[in-house]
Amino acid sequence: MATIRIPTPLRGYAGGLSAVAVNGANVAEVLGDLTRQYPDLHGHLFDGDQLRSFVNIYVGQEDIRYLQGAATPVAAADTLLIVPSIAGGAR
Amino acid sequence: MLYLTSDLHAEIVRLGVAAYPYEGCGLLLGVMTDTAKVVRGVRPMLNVWPVVEERRVRFRIDERDWLAVELEAAAQGLDIIGVFHSHPDHPPIASPRDLAWAAWPGYSYLITEIRAGQAGPSRSWELNTARAAFEEESVQIIADQAPPVG
């Protein structure tokens, strides 16, 4: 099974875990498995059925936007990361 | 409550002064519980806002840099618990811009004012659960790395 790391502030919605083992052949399937295991995560990652605009999914070191998006294959040895886009400014 | 040693706070302020007149930024590493966050390290990050002159009022952290820090921190038993950035010649108050581009509730957003190149106050903010506003978070500057009671 692949592993998906859970961002620190979302661990309370994932049983306190820093990483979750997930089933699935591609990113869409593993994210679906993650939110089936921990339904409270869904609203923090998705707006409807789309990933929130600030949520980026990496398979290893690669952003899925530059791979095959939600269809990006996931192997059992893969680690996925959920990385936020962070920006801001004084005014 | 955000606990931060005086040495780490001084480092954050130094980074803001060094970045002036642009916004400096970085990540807070440490541990997060239900009631508090304890900063154990800071990592300066490149401000990659694409228009250089706009970095006077804008910052952006590259997701690949965040990923690298997350993995490095995990190897040391630490987590990313927040973001710090500076406000050149502007109060350390989370702005609508900070709000628009914030991530999840739970991270600390520590902001330091740097006025005329000199260190100003720091204040910390947390996104509310509705992601609709920031609420100020108390910051406790402590003398050493001893964890808070409880």
Structural description of this entry:
The complex is a heterodimer of chains A (91) and B (150). By secondary structure, chain A is α+β, with helices and mostly antiparallel strands. Chain A has two helices and eight strands, in the order E-E-H-H-E-E-E-E-E-E. Chain A has helices at 27-37, 42-45; strands at 2-5, 19-22, 46-47, 50-51, 55-59, 62-63, 79-84, 86-88. Chain A is globular and about 45 Å long. Chain B is α/β, with parallel strands linked by helices. Chain B is built from three helices and nine strands, in the order βαβββαβαββββ. The longest helix of chain B is centred in the first third of the chain and has 14 residues, at 6-19. The mean pLDDT of chain B is 94. The A-B interface holds A 5, 7-10, 12, 18, 44, 54, 56, 58, 61, 63, 81, 83-91 and B 23, 32, 34, 49, 57-61, 63-64, 66-67, 70-71, 74, 79-81, 83, 85, 87-88, 90, 94-95, 97-98, 100-107, 109. Strand 8 (86-88) of chain A pairs antiparallel with strand 4 of chain B, so a sheet runs across the interface.
| Amino- and carboxy-terminal Cα gap of chain B | 12 Å
Largest sheet of chain A: 5 strands, mixed
Strand tally of chain B is 9
**Poorly predicted regions of chain B:** none
In spatial order, strands of the major sheet of chain A run 2-1-7-5-6
Beta-strand fraction estimate of chain B: 35-45%
Silhouette of chain B:
globular
Mean pLDDT of chain B: 94
How many strands, which pairing sense, and closed or not: the largest β-sheet of chain B?
Answer: 8 strands, mixed
Instruction: Determine the structural class of chain B based on helices, strands and strand pairing.
Output: alpha/beta
Summarize the structure.
The complex is a heterodimer of chains A (91) and B (150). With 91 residues, chain A is an alpha+beta fold. Chain A has helices at 27-37, 42-45; strands at 2-5, 19-22, 46-47, 50-51, 55-59, 62-63, 79-84, 86-88.
